Amino acid sequence: MKPLAFALALLFPVAVHALPEDTGKLSHKTYTRTATIAGKKITFDLYVPAVSKPAPLVVASHGFMRTKANMAGWGKLLASRGYIVAAPGLPGPMPDHKVNGKIVSGLLQWMAAQGAAAGSPLKGLVDGTRRAVLGHSAGGLAS
Residues near 3 by Cβ (< 8 Å), separated by ≥ 6? Predict the structure, then answer.
């Protein structure tokens, strides 16, 4: 490593060695849906990959004072790699972490049920035994 690169690596190790995100090869479709979960009417974006076999489920939750749009990057990235992702708009203005946790859990159950629902974009595509959650800030707490 050259001296300047070495010095930069010591000062900015992530910036020097970070590479652009390698997106997956799958195309996906995005749907906006509304459902009543944990007694709350929730609107969420659903990222569905073009897969031929059942895919795992992920709920990606935004942080305090944010929206589901802040999780679009995660939805697209994970869908391009074969995951079905729901990014909910959690209720506000002040987060109720217990309710948000129930929404995250309920949304996973909703997606699993949609795998067998006639007319659903998830029909036949859901592997409900593989589930994950992720979140930023308050969304991480809910997860």
Answer: none
What long-range pairs does 80-83 form, CB within 8 A, spacing at least 24? 80/23, 80/24, 80/25, 80/26, 80/27, 80/28, 80/49, 81/23, 81/24, 81/26, 81/49, 82/24, 82/26, 82/49, 82/51, 82/55, 82/56, 83/47, 83/49, 83/55, 83/56, 83/57, 83/58, 83/132
* Global pTM value: 0.81
What is the C-alpha to C-alpha distance for residues 103 and 107, in angstroms, rounded to an integer? Answer: 6
Tens digit of pLDDT for each residue in 61-107? Answer: 888 878 888 889 899 999 999 999 999 998 877 878 899 899 999 99
